[in-house]
Structures are given as structure tokens and as C-alpha cells.
């Protein structure tokens, strides 16, 4: 498994806020930073009181003194400003993520993913937050779904936030990665659920469909290392493996037959995290790509001195042309880690 731990963010003594903190990523992120760092305070900001109650019940008693739960919605900028008072770092993980739900409820998707991103930037600037890093998705590159388009707009908002910070010095960056192994709503839990119910046939969108895959541990470590290294305006993309959905089904249930059901609205056959048009602004490091901002916030010299190199013209980082692939053993290793 690729390691994204070094360099880690220096969070000892800092105050941290996580939007969408009761989601799959948020819970794992909070568990990780509570274990690794001596935080002054961590604020979990989300709108679901039941999830907050359940999450609080899971946190060790000795860690609870530094944890605060804030009920609120990223659509409410006043509530965000209140939650961000005296906060050093923000990780923005709140979003509406289901592709089909976004297609059917476009106004709701835009209000959370786009207006919510603007509100996070406004509140961070008003509160003097030092660094904000936002979670994006592979679907934001050349989007065909409303979800992808809304996250592309969100990415642009966070990058442009660096234009607005001025003497405040607040910095904004984005992390973009693929499907999370075992996360809520992904295909692997669906297949396991169907098999547990006695299914002998599994649905598949297309026999050639591919996706990027990352574990929650990798995602958290990638966010922490990006938070440490960010200079403001970057989009960080991890180097992670691809796998065909049919091979996932075959690894989980070798005896099951596959039934092709066709693409859902807004669903791609393959996902790209870096398009050909992005290539001119993309640097490559050993474990990640860095998309430089179109605005001249800083020189790339720091990354070049660290060994970064310009990707070739016409480069495209896509799940179907990826150089790194998961086989069945690799998937089983990721599943065991995810569990």
C-alpha cells in the first residue's frame, strides 16, 4: 500500500474543525488525529444530531475533553463563522455525494456543494483560519454529472479563495481522489449486502468500467500530508491504483454471475483525475500530482527543488490508462485493511 504519512501536518496544540465530520471520512479522520496529536480542540461540524450522538459515544473518554460537536449546515454562513472562531485549520468534507440524488435534486446539490463551499471560504477568511483543505472527487475532472460539476465549481472557489486572503494569510487548497474502499454508498458494501441476502447474481454497470481506489487510511494520510505541504491554491491528486468493477465482483464472489444494468444518469465509464487541459499546470512527485493554480500565487520552484517534474504535454491521469492496477490479492489486502 502506498504511504502518504510523511510529512505529517504539525497539529499539536492546534484547533481544528471538520465539516461533515460525522461522515465516513470525517469519523476516520477524527479518530486518526485524536490518536496522533495533542490537539487543543477539534470541532465536528455537521447537521445530523443522531450521528453526532453516536460518534461522541464512540470517542474514548480521555479524548472527549478536546472534542466539540457543532450542529450546523454549511449552507448557513453565520453558523460556520461561529464554529470557526479561534480555529487554526479546517478540513472541508461536507457534501452531497450521491450522483443520482444530485441529478434528481439539483437545487439541493448546488446549495450544499457550491454555496456551501463559498460559505466555508467566507467564514474562514472572517475568522482568520490559517489553512483550509477541501475534499474533492475524481468526478470533478471533465464532469458529466451535476455532482462532478458542483465539485469542480467548489474546487475553483477554494483555489480562488487565495486571491481574497490578502494580509490575513489564510491559505486554501484541494485534495482530489477516487472511490474509497468500503465507504458508504460504494459498490463493495452493496455487493456484500446482496451476497449476505443470498444473491447469486450481482449488478454491474458495464463490463469495462474502471475506477480509482483508495482506503480511508490512505485518504486521511494524504489529506494530512497535503495540509502540511500546501502553499495555497494547489489541487493535490494521489497516485493510486485502478480496478475494473467486474474484477471486484469476481474477487468478492467468484461464483456469482454478473448482470449488466447500464449506466445511471451522470455516470462515466472511466474516471479521470487530471485532464489533458490540466497537464500544462501539473507537476509530478513520487506519490502525487500537484495541479498548480492558474493565478500566480507562488513560484513552482519549491516543488521543483523537492524533486517535482512537469508532466508531458497531453498527459491524462485516468482510471482506464493508469499504470498501477489492483489484482484480486491487492483488493483483498485493501479490504482487510479497510475492515
Polypeptide structure, described:
With 339 residues, the chain is of the alpha/beta class. The chain has a domain at 15-178 and 214-240 and 273-318: NAD(P)-binding Rossmann-like Domain (Rossmann fold, 3-Layer(aba) Sandwich). Helix content is 37%, strand content 19%. It is built from eleven helices and 17 strands. The strands form four sheets. A ten-stranded mixed sheet has the order 3-2-1-4-5-6-10-15-14-16, sandwiched between helices. A three-stranded mixed sheet has the order 7-9-11. Strand 5, helix 6 (146-164) and strand 6 form a beta-alpha-beta unit. The chain starts with 14 loop residues before the first strand and ends with a helix.
User: Largest sheet, order of strands side by side?
Assistant: 3-2-1-4-5-6-10-15-14-16
The shape, in one word, is: globular
Q: What is the helix content?
A: 25-40%
Give the biggest beta sheet.
10 strands, mixed
Question: What ranges have pLDDT less than 50 throughout 5 or more consecutive residues?
Answer: none
Mean pLDDT: 91
CATH architecture of one domain: 3-Layer(aba) Sandwich
Q: Please state the structural category.
A: alpha/beta
Amino- and carboxy-terminal Cα gap: 15 Å
If helices are DSSP runs of H or I spanning 4 or more residues, what is the number of helices?
11
- In terms of DSSP E residues, the strand content is 15-25%
Q: What is the N-to-C order of secondary-structure elements (H for helix, E for strand)?
A: EHEHEHEHHEHEEHEEHEEHEEEEHEEH
CATH H level, superfamily name of one domain: NAD(P)-binding Rossmann-like Domain
CATH class of one domain: Alpha Beta
Cα gyration radius (Å): 20 Å
**DSSP strand count:** 17
Under CATH, the topology of one domain can be stated as Rossmann fold
Amino acid at each position: 500500500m502506498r504511504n502518504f504519512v510523511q510529512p505529517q501536518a504539525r497539529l499539536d496544540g492546534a484547533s481544528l474543525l471538520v465539516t461533515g465530520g460525522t461522515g465516513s471520512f470525517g469519523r476516520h479522520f477524527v479518530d486518526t488525529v485524536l490518536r496522533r496529536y495533542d490537539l487543543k480542540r477539534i470541532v465536528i461540524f455537521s447537521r445530523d444530531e443522531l450521528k453526532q450522538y453516536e460518534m461522541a459515544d464512540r470517542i474514548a473518554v480521555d479524548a472527549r475533553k478536546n472534542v466539540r460537536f457543532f450542529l450546523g449546515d454549511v449552507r448557513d454562513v453565520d453558523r460556520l463563522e461561529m464554529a470557526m472562531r479561534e480555529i487554526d485549520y479546517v478540513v472541508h468534507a461536507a457534501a452531497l455525494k450521491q450522483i443520482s440524488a444530485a441529478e434528481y435534486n439539483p437545487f439541493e446539490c448546488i446549495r450544499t456543494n457550491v454555496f456551501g463551499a463559498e460559505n466555508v471560504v467566507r467564514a474562514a477568511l472572517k475568522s482568520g483560519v490559517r489553512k483550509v483543505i477541501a475534499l474533492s472527487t475524481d468526478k470533478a475532472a471533465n464532469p458529466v454529472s451535476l455532482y462532478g460539476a458542483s465539485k469542480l465549481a467548489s474546487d475553483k472557489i477554494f483555489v480562488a479563495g487565495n486571491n481574497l486572503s490578502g494580509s490575513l494569510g489564510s491559505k486554501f487548497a484541494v485534495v482530489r481522489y477516487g472511490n474509497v474502499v468500503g465507504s458508504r454508498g460504494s459498490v463493495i458494501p452493496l455487493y456484500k449486502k446482496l451476497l449476505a441476502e443470498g444473491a447469486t447474481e450481482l449488478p454491474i454497470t458495464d463490463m469495462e468500467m474502471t475506477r480509482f481506489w483508495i482506503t480511508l487510511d490512505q485518504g486521511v494520510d494524504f489529506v494530512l500530508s497535503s495540509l502540511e505541504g500546501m502553499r495555497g491554491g494547489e489541487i493535490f491528486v494521489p497516485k493510486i491504483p485502478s480496478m475494473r468493477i467486474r474484477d471486484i465482483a469476481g474477487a468478492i464472489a467468484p461464483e456469482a454471475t454478473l448482470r449488466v444494468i447500464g449506466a445511471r444518469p451522470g455516470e462515466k465509464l472511466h474516471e479521470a483525475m487530471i485532464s489533458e487541459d490540466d497537464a500544462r499546470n501539473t507537476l509530478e512527485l513520487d506519490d502525487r500530482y500537484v495541479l498548480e493554480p492558474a493565478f500566480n500565487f507562488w513560484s513552482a520552484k519549491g516543488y521543483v527543488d523537492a524533486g517535482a517534474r512537469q508532466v508531458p504535454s497531453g498527459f491524462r491521469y485516468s482510471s482506464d490508462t493508469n499504470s498501477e492496477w489492483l489484482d484480486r490479492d491487492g483488493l483483498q489486502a485493501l479490504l482487510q485493511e479497510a475492515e
